Fold each of these.
Amino acid sequence: MEKEEKAEQVLAVLKQINPHTDFKTETREDGSLSSLRWIDENQDECYIYPTDIAIREDQIAWFQTSERDNHLLKVYDAGNEFVWEPITYNPVFGCYCLLLEWYKDHLMFIYQEKHEVYICAVKDREVRHFKFHGEEIERKGNLIAYDTYMGKIPGKVRLIQIPELTELEPLDLPEAEKRGLIPTGLNRFDGFLALK
């Protein structure tokens, strides 16, 4: 599903919940969707980026943030709403969505806050998470490779299996490279952790 189609579905839900709110779509120079924006009941400007939307059948999820640093994960499933505020050291320092994706029977939400990266598995209104202090990460299928700032394992790559969030035995670097699991920094294109 294209980003614009996802945004239209989210916009329909938002308009249903807040019928008197003026929602705006912002576009880039090339005409592609940049964000959905609105002013909420507290006069805070909220926004959702198209890459921060995940849709599966009647399940719609998005990550929204605001000018006043209110960060929320919202999930709508058959008319039921689930809202979760991501764990952050201090929301003013930011909260950046790296991945929002339905995977197997979970919603996977990976985000970066000031000090750590959180890998979250959401199912049945429960959020389980694994966090690490670092910013090097890679994903292939159900495996996420990551490295930490401190306590690096020479010649090895740390692994976690999703959606279970099970820590696995670290991989030797040559095997990790062969499998495309060498973690690198976060300064990459939107959606770089999406299932390919």
Amino acid sequence: MALFSISTRHELEAQVAMIMLQSPFPPLPIVMLNGEGEQKMGSSHDLLSQALSVSLLSPAPSQKAKEELLAKKRDILMNLNTKVGNIWKLEVAKFMQETMHMEAPKHQSEYTNMYNYVWKRTWRKIPVQKCYEVYCTEFRKYMSCYPGSHDLRIFPPSDVTMDTIVYKHTLEHLKAREAYVQDEIFEMELEDGEPKASTLTHIPAVKKDIHTYADMIRLYAMSMFFESLDGPDGQ
């Protein structure tokens, strides 16, 4: 006899899907081995969803153990958000200074709006490798909260082509997030020659067969940067 009924399985799948939707981690290209011992690419979202399913079906831990685990996960996610947001801000500032010869604004002003307007028109050129490395490092830490091997190896982003499962999962995850938070279309409108403030914190809508995997990592990083602006230390 199955451990759970059809209705319970559907409930489990729905709960896992909701958790995955809210996950700040992009799908990462993890190294897996096939039956012949050869390396192949798998999706970290498959790995995480399986870990979540096992966790939800397992006996509940003691209250103390549960609180410690939740605190560990919370610290990892807060660290992820802070690191990625800060790195993206620095990469934007470096790109703008070296390429556009524009200095990062120190105070809110009309110049700030124009500065943001310019970098958001060239966002696909902003380096994202450092952000990607943080996602990989923090995901390894996050997966250590679940049983299983902690030897998690991850392919470089350049290995993720548009025909891979990781690209497909990333596209689907971003589109689901767009629908969930009801982001508006990334089209800044000009008002008297200046960008409207209401359009300054929107991120681009992901586009299949146009955006590369690296572009999509940029979208995750950009989203985290905007979230950091809404935090208690945001400016």
Amino acid sequence: MPQSIIGLLTQKISWGSRAKVADPAAVPYSIDFSSLPSPQNIDLSTTQFKNTIGDVRTLYIDNSDNNATVTVLNAVTRQEMEIPAGYQAYMPVVSSTPQFQISTAGAAIVGFDFLNVQIPPFMWNAEPSTTVIGSILFAGSAGTDHSVNAPAFPPIGLTLLADVPANTSRALIGVQYQDANQCRIFLVNAGGTRTRILLESGGGAGVGGGAWTSQTFKGELLVYATAGDQVAVYEQ
């Protein structure tokens, strides 16, 4: 999943800030369809928005927690985009008057980033999949493929050091492991599915361990490591 694509942006800004229109920038937005009716309209053609970001050239859509397709209609150009349930996508748009109508039959939070830089279209399933994209260059040799089994939870011998609750307005979250044992983080989506990521230990004095960051993950984050280990967790 290309979470690093949004790293092309030099800043993540809020409604109250100002930037040069030419600067790469993004405006985050989310709609909770569990409490709001469908469709919902987003009008970003105000003077405040235009001074902040200018034209919208790419739309990031996070429909990973929704069990229904979300449809985005550009009210000016009539461009229509459909993102299936459980998917995320970057969709190019060209709109100097960014007005969008968002509709879905689901009852979940759908997230958006409105970007003023062009990113090629790309769509991916946020849930684990058995689909293989491309050619397998090395399939392993002797041994047991443990990846086909659900990870042990909670991990045996490790202690829960941090539990970061889900946050739909989150712009960035990261973990830096700084000790010499082992650290495992679990990403928990709205449906309770856990994805495990192993962070490598530090190799000695002056050597940091593994790190993980995301600008799209909005769910709960669990950090397990040996009791007393040094782990940094940050969020904005």
